[in-house]
Amino acid sequence: MRLIKHITLLLIILATSIASAQIKFEAKVSKTKLGINERLRIDFEMNKDGDNFTPPDFYGFTVVGGPNTSVSQSWLNGKRSYKKTYSYFLAPKKRGTLKIRQATIEIDNEVYKTQLVSVKVTAAVKRPNDPDDAENVASDNIHLVAEVSKANPYLNEAITVVYKLYVSQSTGVSNWREIDNPRYNDFWSQNINIKGLKIQNGSYNGDDNYRYVILRKTVLYPQKTGELEIEPLSLDVTVEVPTKRRDFFGGRLMTQVNKRVSAGSRTINVKPLPNNGKPDDFSGAVGDFKFNVITSKTELNASESLQARVEVTGNGNLKLFELPNLQLPNSLEVYEPEHNENVKTNLNGMYGSISDNYTIVPQYKGKYPIPSVEFSYFDPSTESYKTVSSGEIVINVLEGPVNTTNSDNNIASVDNGKQNVVSTGDQFAFVKTDANLKPINSSYFFKSSTFWTSLLLPFLAIPLALVYRKKKEERNADVFGNRIRKADKLAKRYLSEAKKVLGQKEAFYIALEKALHNYLKAKLHIETTDFSKEKIEILLTERQVNRESIQEFINILEHCELARYTPITNVEMQKDYENAAKTISIIDKELR
């Protein structure tokens, strides 16, 4: 009986020791329920260091901070305790139950995954109004406003939306990015390019202590009547907020907070165009226009051509309506019109001209009237329809065959927008039929210089091939040179991931540190737990690497750790990348 107790006790101790030695990789969140205006912290914790940590895609969230890395070690009763944590700060994009997917890491050549985490996002919650809280200060001093030029336009009347970011004089903005672009459903939209952001003084809700910049200008033409919604523009802004601390000279120290601001949705009540007085030929033109029909000539001979241009100029929805058709007598051959647009957009809407250019070829001698063409449009400034006529134009054909058919056929007869074209034997007499072609090459290929060059070229290539082969053998025999080239390729291979994210500070330095880590792990055969600066220095010294090269490598590692938390320019990142590539190449040449 006593023997059974001892065996049971030993089994319990063995099971406990095995359990304590198990590898853990967990995801922990600061809360499982939060408002859409709150932030969530998620920690990925492991009890043993690993390689190739890959976070989830955080679908439904915006990463506003992180990754932040922390490591802690302790010894208790001769046992070592280790914990490494990757922390992220997230902002939810929408309400509902959101799932944070699995993160992965490689530990001892095995891949470990965290469990799925569910978070419930509710409507915005009211936060305690702490006047000294940095986020509350940012909320009170930064505002995004959408200014709409007209809230009740007519159908197809231009309105403008100008997005302004207001910032109080006591705070500042160091960076921003768009996280939710508005979709202008039921509108024809055109963004206006802004060349440079100009800071201007302005007033917000009667407070003159503000500055603002114009971020976007958009021109909209409503395509439906009734209440239409303009979706909000949302930004993630890095705000510089003053603190109670002061520097050596008494100046206020600033702290940075990430703040999400939105312009809010706007509702536009679009009025239909009035039916009273609407012309039968109205095609949807809204604005202030001029209308003309212009011909390149009014006198010509039969089988010659002329151009007739139907043109509308002015300010309005120029791209959103069709021009009236030009109706011509049957004896004038007409080709499909060429449509041209010379339209620009500013805060008043589209302006410029549109035209249809017709090519006309008369077949017979005589006078042919081009009937007057009417163009109707709605003028929002007077809230009335207007009709403009081009006036009749007479085409005088001076010379050519006489039309023996009924003279009434000289007037165009319109049937479903089509007209008959009278065909004659000389209707293309104006087209040149004499090609007057000349041979490009009058000499023969046989026994020419090109012939002899093509024949002798293969024989000339033989000595070149022998020279190339000799150079290749010399290069293969150059052991030292091949080693240098191999080292350069190795450096580029390990640093390829860092080069892809060059310009993104956090991702770049994580990739750079991982590249240096993986390089040493491959070359020195060390595990992650042995990855200390002292161990690296000892191992590289034993492999006869130059002292200066070792120190440069360690300096780069230290810089990777610090750079993620300090301001770094793209130029500095490029320099760090080049230094890392150069150092890896040098060390690989010197390793024995």
Could you explain how this protein is built, in words?
Residues 1-21 form the signal peptide. Pfam families: BatD (PF13584). This is BatD family protein. The chain crosses the membrane at residues 451-468. With 592 residues, the chain is an alpha+beta fold. It has four domains: 21-122, Sandwich (Immunoglobulin-like), CATH 2.60.40.740; 134-270, Sandwich (Immunoglobulin-like); 287-410, Sandwich (Immunoglobulin-like), CATH 2.60.40; 479-590, Four Helix Bundle (Hemerythrin (Met), subunit A), CATH 1.20.120. Helices cover 24% and strands 38% of the residues. It contains nine helices and 30 strands. It has helices at residues 2-20, 134-141, 449-477, 479-494, 496-500, 505-524, 533-542, 547-563, 570-590, and strands at residues 25-29, 33-35, 40-46, 51-54, 61-76, 79-92, 96-100, 104-107, 110-113, 117-122, 142-148, 159-168, 172-180, 187-192, 200-204, 207-222, 226-230, 234-246, 252-262, 266-270, 287-295, 299-300, 306-316, 332-334, 338-346, 349-362, 366-370, 374-379, 384-389, 393-397. The strands form nine sheets. Strands 11, 12, 14, 15 and 16 form a five-stranded antiparallel sheet that branches. Strands 21, 23, 24, 25 and 26 form a five-stranded antiparallel sheet that branches. It has a four-stranded antiparallel sheet with strand order 1-3-6-5, with no helix packed on it. Strand 25 (338-346) and strand 26 form a beta hairpin. Helix 7 runs antiparallel to helix 8 (547-563) and helix 8 (547-563) runs antiparallel to helix 9. Residues 15-20 and 406-422 have low confidence and may be disordered.
